[in-house]
């Protein structure tokens, strides 16, 4: 059911990068989390991202920016997204470069476009409410704002960005962002959450392509200039040569730092508070929260209940991705991830530290 | 170095049966523990049993009694044991039948023989002391006693047999057994261990073949008669026919109950206390005791240290039999057994309950 009208000039960009080291050994350098079905269905996180966008943005206006190791998998997972919309970065250059490249190409192909950028690895419980929220952001973006989607924070998470707002939040009503603070230290995050005036930045952005490119040019010409060069050559005979020559010089910086923090300080950023069951699939613990406890004593992720047999075991998160039986006896509150070449056993409250292990295991397992 | 003289009339019987459900998923119905290298070397428990016997009993006088699923593996693991000495039971009939069959065949082939029966799944730290102990038992057996080897108990184990003796124990000195009690309840076992007058029965027996067969005939003709029939036909053209016809009727009973308990009550049983580092490889916890902690934080059994990477993890027993990496994060005091089709995680103090799991897992994993 298509409840929200599709705006004719709206394009979507999905930056699909990063390997997700906190999801090792399920995610690997060559098998990143956005390609995995971690949302409780058989669709990958990337496919689910496209699925929930399509009622708002047809597949022919959806762009994916990804790395060389994942281009083929992305292309096969998303057969409805045109080949020309799958932009392959020669090397990882963080989110500003990825988003700017796609935005530049879109503006070149469709001048005046509105662009929404959506992370490839989130889970959203209520896609209808999500689309309604984006629709409001699109209207605000037309007026020249750099729009974000704001999520009511539930814990002093230090891995997200925080949006300071002026007053009480109301879903589906755009409002100004006073400050944008990316990844605050724990003490500050706690203060933010306690104040009731901050929202999490959901890592979704909506803006006119032209607005964003101009902001970038004004604030970070070191990024804007090479990206503009590449975008100008895109679809031409020079595309490959210019990309090869220019791309390596592009600075690696997250869009939150390069654009959003300074633009918010200048009163250029807005947000639409969203209430649509948003989850960032950062580690196995957040996956367990999304999937929920389906089986007595264990949350089975990405596998069938028959993959696990337990006696006197509870509080488990079992990821039977190795097509083998996982058996537990008097084991509690651990995450068990079984893959064809490695098995992880991890205390649930240490889920976010799995990335530490990836630094210690031999390279062939990463 | 052959320190103990080989008695010319000594034969060894190794009953190699049972699958070792407490060692699942490492041991399986078709891959029982005695075929696995669990003693900290690359020799299987069965091979190690033969290795430590050979200085006392040459391979041509060593007999193995095993089941149909394991005959081929036994034959290949023990190339020096003659084919005719590998007796294959058509179906499992417990230890009395296995030992009686081999004893009957040996007595037929070598009248007057002394027979020692040795479990296939024990680990012995000091083989020299072991052989010296057996040598003393052989001399006592010549006088017509049913000899056992006694081990000083270290805990009120309810899975073993207990030998009540009259006085203080002295290694290498045979003495009378007043009572033989197989698998006492916990309270009784505790009392036995506290009294200081009991030894564990090491499940090794030494006797004249004739003495044992006569004891069996007197006490359990229902077992002795069919076994005698089969033994009489052994090496003849009728061997297979008689085995097929008679074997299924043989009662299933452990030799401890069928012969040793009643014979001890009649003053027919003796023991030689042994002090040679005896371990019954019953479960993963006893394996860990035998192998010892080789790596910081984990005892690696049956694999290399490189198979495990841990952060903030200790007290682990890791069995990397699946040729994969085992990674742990903040996990303590568990056993992790990784095999090609199943992975077990078990609290160390529940090691003996692994058999409960085997009753619950699908048959293809057992």
Biggest interface reads: A-B, 35 and 36 residues
- Portion of residues in beta strands of chain A equals 25-35%
Span of the ends, CA to CA of chain A: 41 Å
Secondary structure tally, helices of chain A: 11
Q: How many individual β-strands of chain A?
A: 17
Oligomerization status of the protein chains: homodimer
Radius of gyration of chain A over all CA atoms, rounded: 21 Å
Q: Report the sheet with the most strands of chain A, covering strand number, pairing sense and barrel closure.
A: 5 strands, mixed, barrel
The stretches of 5 or more residues of chain A where confidence is low (pLDDT under 50) are none
What's the SSE pattern of chain A? EHEHEHEEHEEEHEHHHHEEHEEEEEEH
How would you describe this protein?
- Two copies of one chain form a homodimer.
- The model of chain A has no long low-confidence stretch (mean pLDDT 93).
- Chain A is built from eleven helices and 17 strands.
- In chain A, the strands form four sheets. Chain A has a five-stranded mixed β-barrel with strand order 6-9-7-8-10, surrounded by four helices.
- Chain A has helices at residues 45-53, 71-77, 94-109, 127-142, 186-195, 209-219, 221-233, 239-246, 255-265, 284-291, 354-358; strands spanning 10-16, 62-67, 86-89, 114-118, 122-124, 146-151, 161-165, 175-182, 198-208, 269-274, 278-280, 298-300, 308-311, 316-320, 325-329, 334-338, 342-347.
- In chain A, strand 1 (10-16), helix 1 (45-53) and strand 2 (62-67) form a beta-alpha-beta unit.
- Chain A has 366 residues and is of the alpha/beta class.
- Helix content of chain A is 31%, strand content 25%.
């Amino acid at each position: 059911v298509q409840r929200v009208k599709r705006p004719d000039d709206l394009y979507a960009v999905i930056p699909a990068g990063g390997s997700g080291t906190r999801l090792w050994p399920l995610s690997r350098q060559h098998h990143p989390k956005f390609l995995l079905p971690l949302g409780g269905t058989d669709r990958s996180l990337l496919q689910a991202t496209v699925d929930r966008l399509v009622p708002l943005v047809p597949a022919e206006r959806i762009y994916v920016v990804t790395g060389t190791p994942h281009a083929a998998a992305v292309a096969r997972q998303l057969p409805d997204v045109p080949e020309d919309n799958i932009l392959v970065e020669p090397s990882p250059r963080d989110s500003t470069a990825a988003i700017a490249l796609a935005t530049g190409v879109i503006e070149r192909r469709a001048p005046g476009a509105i662009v929404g950028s959506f992370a490839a690895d989130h889970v959203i419980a209520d896609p209808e409410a999500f689309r309604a929220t984006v629709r409001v952001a699109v209207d605000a973006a037309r007026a020249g704002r750099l729009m974000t989607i704001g999520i009511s924070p539930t814990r002093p998470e230090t891995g997200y960005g925080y949006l300071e707002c002026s007053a009480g939040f109301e879903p589906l009503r755009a409002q100004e962002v006073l400050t944008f603070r990316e990844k605050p230290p724990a003490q500050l995050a706690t203060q933010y959450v306690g104040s009731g005036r901050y929202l999490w930045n959901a890592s979704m952005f909506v803006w006119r392509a032209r607005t964003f490119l101009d902001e970038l040019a004004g604030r970070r010409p070191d990024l804007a200039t090479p990206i503009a060069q590449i975008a100008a050559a895109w679809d031409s005979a020079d595309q490959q040569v210019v990309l090869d020559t220019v791309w390596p010089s592009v600075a690696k910086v997250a869009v939150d730092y390069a654009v959003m923090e300074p633009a918010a300080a200048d009163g250029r950023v807005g947000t639409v508070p969203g209430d649509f069951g948003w989850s960032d699939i950062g580690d196995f613990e957040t996956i367990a929260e999304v999937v929920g406890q389906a089986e007595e004593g264990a949350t089975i992720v990405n596998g069938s209940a028959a993959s696990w047999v337990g006696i006197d075991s509870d509080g488990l998160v079992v990821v039977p991705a190795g097509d083998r039986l996982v058996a537990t006896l008097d084991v509690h509150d651990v995450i068990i991830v079984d893959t064809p070449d490695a098995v992880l056993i991890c205390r649930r409250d240490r889920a976010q530290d799995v990335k530490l292990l990836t630094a210690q295991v031999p390279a062939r397992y990463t």
